[in-house]
Amino acid sequence: MDRIRRLPTGVVWALGALPLALLVWDTLAGKLGVDPVRDIEHRLGRTAVYFLLASLCITPILRMGRVNLVKFRRPLGLLAASYAGLHLLAWAILDMGLLWPQMLKDIAKRPYLTIGMAVFVILLLLAATSSNKAIRRLGPLRWRAIHRWVYLAAPLAVFHWLLAYKVWPGKPLAILGLVAILLALRLPWLRDGHQKVKKTVIKSGG
Amino acid sequence: AVEKPNSFEQITNYNNFYEFGFSKTDPADNAGQLTTDPWAVEIGGLVDRPGSYSVADLAPANAVEERIYRLRCVEAWSMVIPWLGVPLAGVLEKAGVQPGAKFVAFETLYRPEEMPEQRRRSMDWPYREGLRLDEAMHPLTILATGLYGKPMPNQNGAPIRLVVPWKYGFKSIKSIVKITLTDRQPVTTWQAMQPREYGFYANVNPQVDHPRWSQATERRIGAGLLGGRQETLMFNGYGDQVAQLYAGMDLARDY
Q1: pLDDT value at residue A205
Q2: Chain B: residue nearest A28 by CA?
Q3: C-alpha distance from A175 to closest chain B C-alpha (Å)
Q4: Shortest CB distance from B229 goes to which of A40, A97, A165?
Q5: What per-residue confidence (pLDDT) applies to B1?
Q6: Nearest partner of B203 among B70, B18, B72, judged by Cα
Q7: Hey, are the CB atoms on A99 and B229 less than 8 Å from each other?
Q8: Chain A neighbours among B 196-255 (CB < 8 Å)?
Q9: Which segments constitute the Ferric oxidoreductase domain (chain A) (predicted)?
Q10: How many domains does chain A have?
């Protein structure tokens, strides 16, 4: 575990660039199938959700597994925001063909697009306040309050995904369940209850 | 303007046929196992000659003609497809429509052994659709048995399916086993599931949006990465032929 912790954060960035590289490769190789626009758009969106989920795993891993991966959280969050940005660009340029009047009307009128945009604005805000300088300037309390918005962004992102379907498909529903678990682990009684158990274990072990 | 049909490859690898899975490629992956021969279509209800008909009875090879139609999906994408088929009107006349009949109800095959999504309770199977009798008798409405001069691929609704080009694609029910003439508006699968989102008529209409997305424009499959969108036409561009069917109706209410 120590070995993982000592890896430079550049490794996360390199791994994080892989889904994009694969997508570019598949696009150029014509492997995207009949409707590449849809595939590009959806793959970017899904990747954003996966990195958001990964960033939410850091704290539970620290508390329950007592492994400190906190230094990887910032690149994971920034990757989520970057993929969300690319997803938005794919929607605007490839899917909507930059039809501004319809795009703006749809964002205002269509719940799944309103929600998607809200998620993007939150992620943009978190990305913009992610630097050490921003943390110093805001102070840790205010910074933490701002970054708690991720607890709203994550479920909303999956909700945005679900609302684009005509049925209730299994995969995003499972991901929504995962988000619920990751958020529930942060509820005081679950968090503290677990710590109590841990203390007893340590006591009886010692 | 004459529009270029989509390729056979595109038409057979981008399908909504939920019996085989919810993704666009699931039907091409899973429909191979469907047995389409022998096949029987049961025609019943308010008809003079009810009974079980074979595909050859309904669409004999010498009667089949090519119809190149636009297909507009309710999900705001579209294609152009060269179907092979026969007018539904002729089929219904053969069965002898009785004067009391006002609607036509259709049902897709229910065979969970060969249709994996039917083994889950994800929808109320079998899939059901319906038309008003005058819509069913309209010369544009066909029962299709093939495309691109070939027998109908399984993922496109083999061996026989409905095609109603001025309505959203989900009305064009696939792999039909039952046609019933009735005096009452039949319950259709999507309308029963989400009545606010999918109406009985489901006419292509750029002015009446789906509650969750706009229907003003559509993306033509195969237009390329930067193909953009095109305006959706009223009745999918078939208004000259079909608008009179809905004279005096409020299409925002009867969507």
Answers
A1: 40
A2: B225
A3: 17
A4: A97
A5: 54
A6: B72
A7: yes
A8: 197, 209, 212-214, 216-217, 219, 221-222, 225-229
A9: 44-157
A10: 1
CA distances (Å), B139 to each of A99, B40, B85, B89, B174, in order?
36, 24, 12, 7, 19
Domain span including residue A168: 2-204
Whether the CB of B121 is below 8 Å from some CB of chain A: the reply is no
Residue B20's closest CA among B180, B153, B193? B153
For residues B204 and B194, the answer to whether their CB atoms sit within 8 Å is no
Report whether B70 contacts B78 (CB < 8 A).
yes
Between A140-147 and A111-128, two packed helices, what is the crossing angle to 10 degrees? 160
Distance from CA of A123 to the nearest CA of B (A): 23
Say if CB B176 and CB B108 are below 8 A apart. Answer: yes
Q: Are B236 and B166 in contact (CB under 8 A)?
A: yes
Interface of A with B (CB under 8 A): 27, 33-38, 40, 93-99, 102, 105-106, 109-112, 163-169
Whether residue B73 has pLDDT greater than 90 = yes
Task: Check residue B173 and give its pLDDT.
Answer: 98
The pLDDT of A108-134, averaged and rounded, is: 96
Dihedral of alpha carbons B113, B117, B120, B126, sign: negative
In this structure, are residues B70 and B3 in contact, taking their beta carbons and an 8 Å threshold?
Answer: yes
pTM above 0.95, yes or no: no
Question: CB-based burial of residue A23 (10 Å sphere; 0-12 exposed, 13-18 middle, 19+ buried)?
Answer: buried
The verdict on whether omega for the bond into residue B38 sits within 30 degrees of 0, i.e. cis, is yes
Which pLDDT tens digit goes with each residue over B3-31? 899 999 999 999 999 999 999 999 999 99
Structure token digits, residue B116: 């994996």
Six token digits for residue A29: 């190789």
Cβ distance B219 to A169 less than 8 Å, yes or no, reads no
B74 contacts in A (CB within 8 Å)?
Answer: 166
Please count the residues of chain B: 255
